[in-house]
Inverse folding.
């Protein structure tokens, strides 16, 4: 029998409970109806819009926001992105590169040409230049996708590690992370998401019911 040390035991246990939680949340998400998605998306987008307007007012300049193109039954955040872009903020969405499991970020506008990328997710045409590394320093907020979240800021995604890898890179480049927020259905807030060392917590979760700061967001004084 293979003996595991404490770290390995913890990793094995969080990996298997992550797997079970991922299966459960994917199943719940696939049961979302057109009406549920429509209503929850509109409500969550309204709260996000209000929060980002405040952020822009505080910053006294247009925001630079990294977001994503929703797929499947993820909340439809495109109307929020459209409002942000129309109000003069910079919105970027990723192109997913399978070879190195990294994402590059490309400007998004409501009229911009899109194509279908990896996993069937919409992405900008590859002629749209990528945000340069030094421009990442000025990102104000990152909207992250995910399957489940908890009040500590724990996040479980599709299991490819794209966002954790990107956020770790971002953390290296700057003293403080930008706001990290997730727009989610109420049922996506769960009691406990098993966290691993590489997991980067979110600062706020935005539900149809409103904005909820996580302990991670409060701990770094983001909840102002
Ligand atoms: N909108 C969106 N964009 C995103 C992510 C995301 O979660 N949502 N990702 C976050 O990291 C990355 C893509 N990661 C993904 C990893 C695996 C699968 C996947 O396994 N898809 C299955 C079926 C999905 C399902 O069971 O519902 C497949 O294609 O067969 C999809 C996306 C980057 N872009
Ligand atoms: N900063 C990192 N550096 C290297 N590998 C990483 C990093 N973050 C995550 N990974 C790897 O990615 C894999 C998936 O991680 P995890 O289960 O946390 O994904 P996820 O957050 O659910 O997925 P996603 O970010 O794609 O939604 C793990 O095998 C993990 O080791």
């Amino acid at each position: 029998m293979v003996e595991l040390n404490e770290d390995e035991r913890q990793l094995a246990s969080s990996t298997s409970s992550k797997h079970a939680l991922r299966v459960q949340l994917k199943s719940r998400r696939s049961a979302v109806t057109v009406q549920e998605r429509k209503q929850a998306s509109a409500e969550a987008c309204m709260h996000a819009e209000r929060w980002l307007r405040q952020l822009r007012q505080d910053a006294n300049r247009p925001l630079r926001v990294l977001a994503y193109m929703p797929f499947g039954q993820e909340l439809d955040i495109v109307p929020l992105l459209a409002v942000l872009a129309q109000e003069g903020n910079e919105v970027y969405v990723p192109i997913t590169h399978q070879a190195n499991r990294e994402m590059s970020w490309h400007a998004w506008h409501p009229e911009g040409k899109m194509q279908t990328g990896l996993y069937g997710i919409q992405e900008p045409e590859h002629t749209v230049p990528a945000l340069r590394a030094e421009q990442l320093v000025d990102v104000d907020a990152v909207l992250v996708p995910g399957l489940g979240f908890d009040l500590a800021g724990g996040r479980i995604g599709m299991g490819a590690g794209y966002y954790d890898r990107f956020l770790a890179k971002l953390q290296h480049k700057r003293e403080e992370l930008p706001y990290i927020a997730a727009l989610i259905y109420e049922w996506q807030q769960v009691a406990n998401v098993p966290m691993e060392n590489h997991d980067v917590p979110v600062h706020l979760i935005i539900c149809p019911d409103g904005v909820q700061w996580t302990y991670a967001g409060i701990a770094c004084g983001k909840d102002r």
Summary: Helices lie at 6-30, 34-59, 78-86, 162-173, 215-219.
